[in-house]
Amino acid sequence: MRFDVNCSILFTGLPLLERPAAAKAAGFDGVEFWWPFAAAVPDDHEVDAFVAAVEDAGVRLVGLNFADDIAEGGRGLFSRPADRARLRDNLDVAIGIAERLGCTALNALYGNRVAGQERQQDVLALENLALAARKAAKIGAVVLVEALNSYESPSYPLVSVKGAIDVIENVGEPNVRFLCDLYHLARMGEDLTAALAHPLVGHVQIADAPGRGRPGTGEIPLKRLLDGYDGWVGLEYKDPGLDFDWIKEFS
Are 230 and 201 in contact (CB under 8 A)? Predict the structure, then answer.
């Protein structure tokens, strides 16, 4: 098991391009990011600066979101008809960054519901996910589908393991996988042991619940759950103090 830092939720007191180096200085060899640019298609200078920041820090980019609208309160673009062109313009950009940095996991947030367009959204999401998966396959990457919790994301339709897995199976591409976020699943009362054991798990993220704090601040038995897991585990929790002493318990 290897921990990587989600630098879109940790080290946020620093400019974005300084966060990979800060993660390295804190002892981490991997980082992940939500979409790190304001635009779905940033200019070449912005992309080059981001790639250089990760490379110069000596860390691996473990995971990257496709363009999302988290900063505006959204939950992704894949199912949203008004964002169809924006999302599709982003696919090659995101996959290009992933290829340059050896990243093999790209998170495709489904998108919040739009009243009256639910059926259209589900059809569009499958089309967009299949397209993203075929493009990602060319660099040996997987596309991740994530279940969130309905308390913090009431308009997001995928709020269970089954909901996410059903979408993955309906896409029908072999490199679409489940992003197993133990925090969100715990909030929804899911069986976390069963979720981690699902054969379609492609990446794991953690935060303790309730509160979304660092491990040890809540009620999830993360050490027991992750015992024997040998993949990357993304730290996607809130901790202004940046206290990583809890990791000693996992060694």
Answer: no
Q: 185-208: b or e for each residue (b if 16 or more CB lie within 10 Å)?
A: bbbbebebeebbeeeebbbbbbbb
How many residues are there in the chain?
Answer: 251
Q: Which amino acid is at 126?
A: L
46, 72, 118, 146: which is the annotated catalytic residue? 146
Active site residue 236: yes
Domain assignment of residue 79, given as a range:
2-250
What is the per-residue pLDDT across 131-158, written as a single tens digit (0 to 9) for each?
Answer: 999 999 999 999 999 999 999 999 999 9
Residue 170, helix vs strand vs coil: helix
DSSP 8-state symbol, 208: B
Q: How far apart are CA 183 and CA 89, in angstroms?
A: 31
Global pTM? 0.97
Report cis status (omega within 30 of 0) of the bond before 210: yes
pLDDT in tens, 177-233: 999 999 999 999 999 999 999 999 999 999 999 999 999 999 999 999 999 999 999
Question: Which CATH number do you get for residue 184?
Answer: 3.20.20.150
CA neighbor of 180 nearest in space, from 199, 156, 166: 199
Domain count for the chain: 1
Task: Exactly one of 32, 118, 219, 236 is catalytic; name it.
Answer: 236
* pLDDT value of residue 16: 98
- Is-contact 174 212, C-beta < 8 A? no
Tokens of residue 127, six digits? 């089309």
